[in-house]
Amino acid sequence: MFSQADFIQYAQWSGIATLVFAALTVLGFIFKWGLRFRLVGTTGFMLVLTVGLFSLSLAPLTRTVIPGAVRYNLVYDNGSTQTVIAIPPQISPTQLEATLRQAASDLYSYGRLGRPGDNQLTIRARTIIHPEPGVSIPLYLGQIKRSLASREDPQMAIDIYQDKFAQLPKSNT
Q1: Residue 173: predicted pLDDT
Q2: pLDDT single digits (tens) 74-90
Q3: How far apart are CA 46 and CA 55, in angstroms?
Q4: Which among 49, 103, 128, 147 is least surrounded, fewest beta carbons within 10 Å?
Q5: Phi and psi dihedrals of 144, rounded to 5?
Q6: DSSP secondary-structure letter at 9?
């Protein structure tokens, strides 16, 4: 992942290239080159690219990493207050808690809309078990509820369904 310092350097190089294209554009108009209008477009594109790279250097692009979390896939997201993630059936309760915290951090967004009276994002974690060939059953192992209003929510409510872990296949735990 690129850091802010990388984007600053890219913006500098892009700015230099923009100035070079601007100088070529001026020379193109002075000497009436046939590609002078293409140089105007190229200079404009380089200017937009430089501004974009510079703006990326201003915002932090860091991602919180929770130790012990396992990879998950987003299965359902209504863009508001409900999401479901898929986790492997070989997960332990401590890994599940870390994974739920990771998902709560990853899926937080200022753009999520809360309903009146329900200003919390609920993330449910599920896995698929196969009790017999040809039969698949979703098994919800836990959930986390976090605030939609603030990124740092110290009052996240985590529920781990310990009784559901007993239903996981014994060979995978």
Answers
A1: 42
A2: 999 998 899 999 999 99
A3: 14
A4: 128
A5: -135, 140
A6: H
